[in-house]
Each structure stands twice: as structure tokens, then as C-alpha cells.
Amino acid sequence: MSIEIAGVGKRFGDFVALDNVTVSIPSGRLTALLGPSGGGKSTLLRIIAGLERADTGRVEIEGIDATDLPPQKRNVGFVFQHYAAFKHMSVRRNVAFGLQIRKRPKDEIAERVDELLKLVHLQQFADRLPAQLSGGQRQRMALARALAIKPTVLLLDEPFGALDAKVRKELRDWLRRLHDEVEVTTVFVTHDQEEALEVADEIVVINDGRIEQIGSPDDLYDRPANDFVMRFLGPVTQLGDHLVRPHDLQISTTPAGPDDVAGQVSRITRIGFEIRIDVTTATGQAVIVTLTRNEFLALGLDVGTTVHLRITPGSPTTPAGPVPAEVPLEVATSSH
């Protein structure tokens, strides 16, 4: 394993940021630390980097005990959300900085910088200042600078959080391709479920300083360990006593079995390629069902139509607990 975290705890005054966290991060994989704000994911990343010191526990990187090593001796590349660029230096000099302070030969630095600028598609902007780049270009520069020292581990703290949705989407596609090309162990922090599901090989869900679940995107989405993971990784609704994905509910105008739940359509909303059906059951429960446009048209539904709901056999469900304060309502009920 590339990174071993064992029994790590961290407090800031009375606030428990990490509570006895133990996790193994595989070598060569792209791992996401996913969770709500204040859940502990950035603190864990900074402890791996050596930018914060754990109160308890141990950190190993590539079999070496790094618990007491300073950041510069961990061979870790770190990329912040807001680039942390040297504003007075050109793109080329920003990328070269880590190699220069390590006193590498000039020819080696020039060759490595040219290689990285080509890799991140910035060779034509080498002599510009960071202020002359777009946000996406500045983040690619930051990644090139982090990779320049050939780190054992690349750590990214919400690297695309300051960018607009379109640029974020483009950059996470690019990050996945870059990771596959350079094959460095990568750990990135995000609170964006879609980003984690799309980019990561493995996801570590962190909440209130504790690990909720670790697994592949498919494992977590299809086999959530508890209602928190169910709510945090994708849209959910509640039917009876169970949380379920809105697209895992079947809806019909005639009953199909004794377990069907009857209700009335209270609202119909088109959201892109999906149709969202709000149903109020006979007991007053509000349930959301999502259909494709063709499925919706075939059913001929309208507001006021009596419908029957059932959970698709084999779909992931969890017992419904109270909505945690850390999970915004729109995460629990929308297709975000």
C-alpha cells in the first residue's frame, strides 16, 4: 500500500477534526476523500502532506514512517484550491520552482519543465504571468508545478472548487487522463459527489472526523453502508421506511402487487433529460420518482393522476433515519 494511516486523531481546541482514522490508500490509484464541509477530509490530506501534525496515530508513505517528517522530506506534491502561484513569476518559473530549490542542474530543470508544460498543454503560455491565464490554465500550471519534483504522492485539496461548472467538468476529465498517463498515487479532496464518482478509483467517505465507508464508486453507490452514505452519494427519496434512489422506483397507473404504495401526482418537472414526478401518498408522504421522457410519455401522467409505487427489486435501499444536518436538503432530494 502506498499510504497507510493508522489511528490518526486531530483536535482543534474542543473540535474533533479526526477521530481515530485508519485507512489504506492503494499505490498508483486515484483516491477521493469525499464528505461535507468540516467533516475532516482536508485535515486528513494536510496530515498526509505534513502541513498539519496529528495528535495521535501514524502515517506511512511507501513503507516509510512519515509521521514526524517535515513536508519537504515526504516527496509529496500538493495542489491547493486557489493555485498558490507566485504572481511575479512566469508560468515556466512557477513550474521550475521546486526543482530550483532542490538545486537540480539547469539543463535537467529546463528539460523537465518543457516536458510538463507539454503534458498540461501550456507550452505556448510558458512566458506569461499567472494573472494572464484563465482559472483552468492556472490550475493546470499548479498541477505541473506539483509534478515537477516527481512526487511519490500527489495531493489535491478541492482543486477545481473555485472554477465554474463547465471548466470543472473539463478539468476532471483531463485529471483522469493525466493520472492514467503519469501513474502517480493521487489523493484528492472533494465535496462534489459527481466529481468523486466520475474520477476516482476508490472513494473514502468521511463525516464528523470518522470514516463512513471505503470502496469503489460502484460499491458505494450500489451498496451504501448506511443512510449517510446513501444520502451523500446521489439523490434519494423515501418510500415508507426506506431510502431509495428516485430512479429505482417503479410507477404505474394500475396496482401490480400487494406491496404497492398508492398516491397522487402532485407536480411534474422536466430537468434536462429527466422528468421528476412528485407523488403524495395516501399517508401524506412526499415521494420523488425520476423517469426518462419516453417512460413519462408512455404512462400518460398528469397532475392529479392516481399512481402506484414500488421499489425495483435488487435496488440499493437503507433504513431511513433523520436527515443529517451535514447533508443539505437538495443533496437528499435533487438530481445534483
Automatic annotation (TrEMBL):
Signal peptide range in chain numbering: none
Keywords: ATP-binding, Cell membrane, Membrane, Nucleotide-binding, Sulfate transport, Translocase, Transport
InterPro entries tied to this protein: AAA+_ATPase, ABC_SmlMolc_Importer, ABC_transporter-like_ATP-bd, ABC_transporter-like_CS, Mo/tungstate-bd_C_term_dom, P-loop_NTPase, Sulph_transpt1, TOBE-like
GO MF assignments: ABC-type quaternary ammonium compound transporting activity; ABC-type sulfate transporter activity; ATP binding; ATP hydrolysis activity
EC category name: translocase
Pfam families per record: ABC_tran, TOBE_3
Record region (Disordered): 313-336
Residue ranges constituting the ABC transporter domain according to the UniProt record: 3-233
Domain of life per record: Bacteria
Gene Ontology CC annotations of this record: ATP-binding cassette (ABC) transporter complex
Keyword presence, Ion transport: no
EC number(s) recorded for this UniProt protein: 7.6.2.9
NCBIfam families, sorted: 3a0106s01
Protein name (record): ABC-type quaternary amine transporter
Protein source organism: Dactylosporangium siamense
